[in-house]
Write a structure and sequence with these properties.
The complex is a heterodimer. Chain A is of the alpha/beta class. Chain A has two domains: 2-135 and 301-313, 3-Layer(aba) Sandwich (Rossmann fold); 139-295, Dihydrodipicolinate Reductase, domain 2 (2-Layer Sandwich), CATH 3.30.360.10. Chain A is 39% helix and 22% strand. Chain A has helices spanning 10-18, 44-54, 62-66, 87-96, 107-111, 113-121, 139-146, 160-172, 176-186, 194-197, 200-213, 235-243, 300-313; strands at residues 2-6, 25-30, 35-37, 72-75, 100-103, 127-128, 151-157, 225-227, 246-255, 258-267, 278-285, 289-296. Chain B has two domains: 9-85, ACT domain (Alpha-Beta Plaits, 2-Layer Sandwich); 91-170, ACT domain (Alpha-Beta Plaits). In chain B, helix 3 (106-117) runs antiparallel to helix 4. The chains are: A alpha/beta, B alpha+beta. The interface between A and B is medium-sized, with 26 and 22 residues. Chain A: This is homoserine dehydrogenase.
């Protein structure tokens, strides 16, 4: 497949780097201010090198990447809320050109799912977005394999930053501010960790799961989710939980058409009590009990692997 | 299914006793005297309700007719019968409350959870590392009727909201995740 990769952050860059390893070529690669386009395949090493040294991927216009020759558009720009632009527009352009779109950007499928699906119906191209939920973990494809109608609930730890903070607080007896600063030093938390710790990121993933579970019947957006973060969790609360064989995890729960994210008590030895930055999704199946999928929920190569797996499914 | 009135069935009666000598015996007499067969007595001695009473759970066998007589006799004897019936308090629920628990009257918070939901507080641990004037946390275990967990949780949320407290809820009924 020929790929146009839009977005040159950790995920976009990793897709470009790993594409040839998966038998694909990259014909266009763009960040917000520059692009490199070559219908015969760009020199990926050179583009990534330029991005590192000069902050640009090439000398072409970013807008031209959208109209370049490609089979699959990979949307890996930062997630935006509301109208989900510019990511949504990129997906729209690809579908209107009857090309496939594979998303790592949560915005379009969390905030405008029905619009994305309706564009897809009019197009010869397909939309896949495994990378938007749980990084490398095959959550959405497993739901689709089982058929969403046979999944009654999904619960999971879908934000590694929040999970790292809660597990460090619990094991070290440290308070929230202290562990957050440590997480930022380690690069586990971003300089602005708001979306990770206030539950927004996990809620977007929950909303995407809810959209997949409902088929095309009901559309969910972030406004439909009940969201609570971990900022108010105290060391003493974690200590009390621990003395009772429990711990606190930021859980995203999708059940019977509701999406809820908040800190919840779980038994210490429960599958959902993963530690560190690890993520887990627990599917409640109609005929096969619980199914746990655990792994790395974020990171460039991890998320790029999910993008490339989607491309393989097209 | 037979539901004849002379068929012996098992019942659980939940009582709250005043902490005085002889109270337990006084509560058991009406059961024996009215044809009840005692199966077990769970005397939660170390566990005082918000009103300072000691919860006692009695399992017994009796015919439905005799059982009604037992409950009447208990009440006539001035025994506080909290729950009488075939249904048990079978779901345990653990929550953590955080915030200014002490300043917002923890005992009132517990009483109101108890009164509005029929759930019983069976265990309480308080942690106030910064002193009782600062934010603290409490782990509370409740016994609630089967199927009443959602109702209990919404009552807890309402009390917590009103007092500006924060509830960390269990993931699923009984904390089984």
């Amino acid at each position: 497949m020929r790929l146009a990769v839009i977005g040159a952050g950790a995920v976009g860059s990793s897709v470009v780097e790993l594409a040839s390893d998966h038998g694909h070529s990259v014909t266009a690669f763009a960040d917000s201010s520059s692009a490199v386009i070559d219908s015969a395949g760009i020199d990926t090493a050179e583009a990534l090198d330029r991005k590192r040294t000069d902050g640009v991927v090439g000398s072409d216009e970013p807008a031209d990447a959208l109209s370049a020759d490609y089979d699959v558009l990979v949307e890996a720009t930062p997630t935006t809320l509301g109208d989900a632009e510019p990511g949504f527009g990129h997906v729209q352009t690809a579908l209107e050109r009857d090309r496939h779109a594979v998303l790592a950007n949560k915005g379009p499928v969390a905030e405008r799912y029905a619009d994305v699906r309706s564009l897809e119906r009019e197009s010869d191209g397909s939309v896949l977005f495994e990378a938007t939920v749980g990084g490398a973990m095959p959550i959405l494809s497993t739901i689709n394999d089982f058929d969403p109608s046979h999944i009654t609930a999904v619960r999971g730890v879908l934000n590694g930053t929040a999970n790292f903070i809660l597990s460090r607080m619990a094991t070290e007896g440290l308070d929230y501010e202290h562990v957050l600063a440590e997480a930022q030093d380690l690069g586990v938390a971003e300089a602005d960790p708001t979306f990770d710790v206030d539950g927004t990121d996990a809620a977007l993933k929950g909303v995407i799961i809810a959209n997949v579970l409902s088929g095309d019947e009901t559309e969910y957006t972030l406004d439909d989710a009940v969201v609570e973060g971990i900022q108010d969790i105290s060391g003493s609360a974690l200590e009390l939980a621990r003395a009772d064989g429990r711990t606190v995890r930021l859980i995203a729960e999708v059940v019977e058409g509701s999406v809820r994210v908040g800190p919840r008590l779980v038994p210490d030895n429960a599958p959902l009590a993963v530690s560190g930055t690890r993520n887990i999704a627990q599917l409640e199946t109609e005929h096969a009990g619980q199914l746990n999928i655990s792994g790395r929920g974020a990171g460039g190569p991890e998320t790029a692997s999910a993008v490339l797996a989607d491309i393989g499914r097209l | 299914m037979s539901d004849s009135t002379d068929e012996v069935r098992s019942y659980t009666v939940r009582l709250e006793l005043v902490d005085e000598p002889g109270e337990l015996l006084r509560a058991l007499d009406p059961i024996a005297n009215n044809g009840g067969n005692l199966l077990s007595i769970f005397h939660e001695r170390g566990n005082v309700t918000p009103r300072g009473h000691i919860p006692v759970e009695v399992d017994l066998e009796a015919t439905p007719e005799r059982f009604d007589g037992i409950v009447d006799a208990l009440r006539d004897a001035g025994i506080n019968v909290i729950q009488a019936g075939a249904e048990q308090y079978s779901e345990a629920l653990t929550i953590i409350l955080t915030g200014h628990l002490v300043n917002t009257d923890l005992s009132d918070t517990l009483s109101r959870i108890h009164e509005s939901t029929d759930a019983t507080v069976t265990d309480l641990s308080l942690s106030a590392p910064e002193g009782t004037d600062d934010a603290s946390s409490a782990r509370i275990r409740l016994a609630t009727e089967e199927g009443a967990v959602d109702e209990t949780m919404s009552a807890i949320r309402a009390v917590a909201d009103e007092k500006g407290l924060h509830v960390i809820e269990p993931l699923a009924a009984g904390g089984e995740a």
